[in-house]
Amino acid sequence: MTRPKKTSRLTPKGTRPQGEVVEESLSGDLPPSAAWFGWMILIFLLVGVAVIFSNYMSWLPGSPSSSWILGGLGFVLLGILSATRWR
Fold first, then answer.
1. What is the DSSP letter of 29?
2. Which long-range contacts (CB under 8 A, 24 or more apart) does 73-78 make?
3. What are 35-78's pLDDT values in tens digits?
4. Given this model, what pLDDT does residue 4 score?
């Protein structure tokens, strides 16, 4: 005789408790992003990393300087913020 399986499920699989409100995804009604948007994200991130790297290698005028670092971090931040808006 086999043992019955112990589960932590309170309702049968595939059902929902009464009164539960299910919200649909808000992004379903928005069109997908343009094809160039992904490339823009990548360019922002790569330019930011290139500026920071070039600052440490002293390839930029007046480097090493914290203003170049802030500019590079700004580009990286733009890339990250753009990536959160990509659909």
1. G
2. 73/48, 74/48, 75/44, 75/45, 75/47, 75/48, 75/51, 76/44, 76/45, 76/48, 76/49, 76/52, 77/48, 78/44, 78/48
3. 999 999 999 999 999 999 999 999 999 989 999 999 999 999 99
4. 66
| Residue written as token pair 């086999």 | 2
**C-beta separation of 73 from 67 below 8 A:** no
pLDDT higher than threshold 60 for residue 27: no
Token output for 52: 């920071």
> Which pLDDT score, from 0 to 100, does residue 14 have?
72
Within the chain, strands assigned E span none
Do the beta carbons of residue 41 and residue 83 sit within 8 Å?
yes
- Tell me which amino acid residue 68 is: W
